[in-house]
């Protein structure tokens, strides 16, 4: 289209070879190397021209795509960034390229690195980008879903990815939704607020504006009557072997089955005392779809499991049943508009999400909230953690077969916390409480009293009761100890965060690893257990609730020293302009690390709004946890990950 | 109220001057209707089926504080075959809608649908999204709508009371589930390049043939 | 670790205690003759209570906190007999899902805008109850309602009801005062302060304006 567009696209003939030429002048303009962190400096010295840092640029650019994997391996092994926190992409349509952004981090703590690569985006909005990026799955297993998401949203292919299919939409979906030139059917404008609302705002339903009178759009010449839809294309491909019916007949059936059985038994052979020689026994493996409507999947998740008898031999996840286009909408919203939307990410703990978003934007704007607001934020975020863990434990027990009693007990406690949220913020779930540079409302005396009652009396008492009810229960132990084992180094490689990682013995909690807000003022511990199984994930959550109670107690005690009513830095505004730039901010939500990667072009709306959601990335490791266990345990292991589909699918 | 019941009444009675206007509905069948509806409305089994944020409030409604069982809506069944009521609790995405329609088709009649919250009613705050269906009523018939994002548990309970009201107005004489013939099976939408409502296939084909190639 | 099964027994003890507490609490309440009694739903939700928590909704209701927000409504100034809304459009701008539509009134002759909405729509099927419109309205003209009993069935009312127009949205300020007493008090205080300021300004104007000029001249000189 424009001149800027054609220029880099033309330069992008053979990928890696042609790439360095346009980027070289940028390398000359690079700032003195001293502005880079020691790690990046080391990286640059080691790789020379392949890693550059163009002038006003956050992080470094891996200039030579072919070397990406090598660079990342170096980052992981030599620099110690053993965990890929985040991977996403940004479509710079004017410049004509898509930038893939990686944030590796250390499980010991500290800020993440920022590494980027660029690929030409291509002119065709429905064709994938002409150049593929080497997949990082061999280096960081946690990249698997994230790369699939980038492929799904931007059409960037990843070479060497084990299973590159669409993840949030379905196979056959038309176009790459997060590209800037791709518009949805109800598209009304690039940025909100829309002009049609005021001053001549005659109400019109979105349906009335579009040709199909519905939220759909079809490519020209589309014929639904002769269309072979296969939204699950490729899903069963790697699961086929040994499954009659799905087999394409090439593999010798009997052999494949026995191999499958052997593999499964070897995992469990500790207690195998089989009277039957399994070589003789001819059994079929079957594929079972659990979900998207299934009582144990905590929402609309679909697990495709391959079963040998009752043992899971393979597992694949189908996501996207709650893909609500959070990021696409978020890029149209103003900065302020996004706050209530973040509530709906992980709808169990909305306040924690808000905190993450608000902190990231504040980082870009360079403002700080007043003391009292900081305390209120911490109180709310920690109460959210307690409330979310109550919920998680209740429903973990539900998955274990302890139907409803524990869940009902804990929902009662949760309701009391939600009452406080409602009194302060106005809503039980979707609090919309945090603002840039403050919070929306102060606690009244009554509300502080209520919070004190909860934090000093009710919640500690109930956590004790919870432990009495569950912790020593032999049935629970029999069902959970040793189930879903994933050792620490694998967990880290899978980018597992949150209570599940801490149950594997890694004391990684962003409140300590990369402190934000005022968490450095409080005296609290990061509970760590070493079993790396479902039972220890449960115990970590209980211990974390106790620590959260401690934080809330301290915060409530110190709240008296702050000035009542002083809850907003500067004047309350609705039209924020955020300086151009990029930022990656993260907080520790009850589910793990919630990160926001924001790109601003200086306007009222984010240019790119990416959510690094912990539930989504934690699911990467589910397969390794589940394979070898019984199908009933698969349900429990999923429960122990504590995912929320709103955050998984966004 | 009167509109509905008048329609249920036999023609000759409607115009019979000997029947006082307020008694016109209270002929024999209404007694049986009352019993029938009383039984139905107080033993509704909702389907255990959550979609999004509203599902959390739905679970809260079923929990101790609000206690759905007080209404006789005792059990949440995970199987559509055992459920009378589908609470569409949350955002309906295009990817999910084939499953919802399938579940609805699998529910035995009499069956009811509550669209809980703004999203299920008409798309809600996510309406503009490319993967969001503008209301589940575009695919399956909805009996009661609830406004709110998310509705409080009490608001959900209020919708149950409304649904009971609605059930009360139904009459054995003309309820659809005793009629002869095939069940109404809603064709399951297809995930093509976009969601395809097969009932509109011809229309879509015609329009797509005329559409200009993408710019 | 004790005998196998003690963990289960301990857990069963907890459920038994819950069971007993449920009756004990209600008995205690019934026998408690002294002093003012809290209403049952409130008492059941207090953090101190140990027994049953059920609130029998249509009969009993939990009091709604003042901040509670559901769907917005427009405040009608009963004193001035006028809409408070000036159709400035801020609410339409801050609305995240863009569910507010406003048509500004225009003077039929001069085509100049008149600070009053001609039409005002809120599409409740899109509204996310975030409360921004009420929070950022500079005129206290739009507030969040407490009425959550909005479910309906189509036979009862047409679905157009989901889009609230101006007539439906407008509610008197007495209603606002009844559900938001503190907020209303703040408004009254602000209004009183404004009046006082105006009065002071008018008095200052009435006095010879020499003093003011003097100070201005001084600051300019500096």
Descriptive report:
- The complex is a heterotrimer of chains A (650), B (215) and C (222).
- Helix content of chain A is 39%, strand content 13%.
- Chain A is an alpha+beta fold.
- Chain A folds into three domains: 2-159, Beta Polymerase, domain 2 (2-Layer Sandwich); 237-318, no CATH class; 326-649, Cytochrome-c3 Hydrogenase, chain B (Orthogonal Bundle).
- In chain A, the strands form five sheets. Chain A has a five-stranded mixed beta sheet.
- In chain A, helix 11 runs antiparallel to helix 12 (371-400), helix 12 packs antiparallel against helix 13 (405-425) and helix 14 (445-470) runs antiparallel to helix 19 (534-559).
- The longest helix of chain A is centred in the middle third of the chain and has 30 residues, at 371-400.
- The radius of gyration of chain A is 25 Å and the shape is globular.
- Chain B is mainly alpha-helical and 215 residues long.
- In chain B, helix 3 packs antiparallel against helix 7 and helix 4 packs across helix 7.
- Chain C folds into three domains: 1-63, no CATH class; 72-175, Alpha-Beta Plaits (2-Layer Sandwich), CATH 3.30.70; 180-217.
- Helices cover 41% and strands 15% of the residues of chain C.
- Chain C is built from eight helices and seven strands; from the N terminus they run ααββαββαββαβααα.
- Chain C has helices spanning 6-31, 40-44, 90-94, 132-136, 166-169, 173-179, 181-206, 210-221, and strands at 72-77, 82-83, 100-106, 113-123, 142-144, 163-164, 170-172.
- At the A-B interface, helix 9, helix 13 and helix 23 of A face helix 4, strand 4, strand 5 and helix 8 of B.
By CATH, the superfamily of the largest domain in chain A comes out as Cytochrome-c3 Hydrogenase, chain B
Give the helix/strand class of chain B.
mainly alpha
Determine Rg of chain A (CA atoms, Å): 25 Å
Q: End-to-end span of chain B in angstroms?
A: 53 Å
What does the radius of gyration of chain B come to? 20 Å
Give the largest interface.
A-B, 66 and 57 residues
Would you count the extended β strands of chain B for me? 5
Question: How are the SSEs ordered, and which strands pair?
Answer:
The complex is a heterotrimer of chains A (650), B (215) and C (222).
Chain A: H1 3-11, H2 15-18, H3 20-28, H4 38-47, E1 51-52, E2 60-62, H5 68-77, E3 83-92, E4 97-105, E5 115-120, E6 133-134, H6 143-154, E7 158-159, H7 206-209, H8 253-267, E8 285-290, E9 302-308, E10 311-318, H9 326-332, H10 338-343, H11 350-365, H12 371-400, H13 405-425, E11 434-435, E12 438-439, H14 445-470, H15 474-480, H16 488-493, H17 499-502, H18 510-513, H19 534-559, E13 581-589, E14 592-600, E15 606-612, H20 614-618, H21 622-626, H22 631-641, H23 645-649
Parallel strand pairs in A: 2-5, 6-7
Antiparallel strand pairs in A: 1-2, 3-4, 4-5, 8-9, 9-10, 11-12, 13-14, 14-15
Helix pairs in contact in A: 11-12, 12-13, 12-19, 12-22, 13-14, 14-19, 19-22
Chain B: H1 2-8, H2 11-14, H3 28-41, H4 53-62, E1 85-89, H5 97-106, E2 112-116, H6 117-122, E3 144-145, H7 153-168, E4 190-191, E5 195-196, H8 201-210
Parallel strand pairs in B: 1-2, 2-3
Antiparallel strand pairs in B: 4-5
Helix pairs in contact in B: 3-7, 4-7
Chain C: H1 6-31, H2 40-44, E1 72-77, E2 82-83, H3 90-94, E3 100-106, E4 113-123, H4 132-136, E5 142-144, E6 163-164, H5 166-169, E7 170-172, H6 173-179, H7 181-206, H8 210-221
Parallel strand pairs in C: 1-7
Antiparallel strand pairs in C: 1-2, 1-5, 3-4, 4-6
Helix pairs in contact in C: 6-7
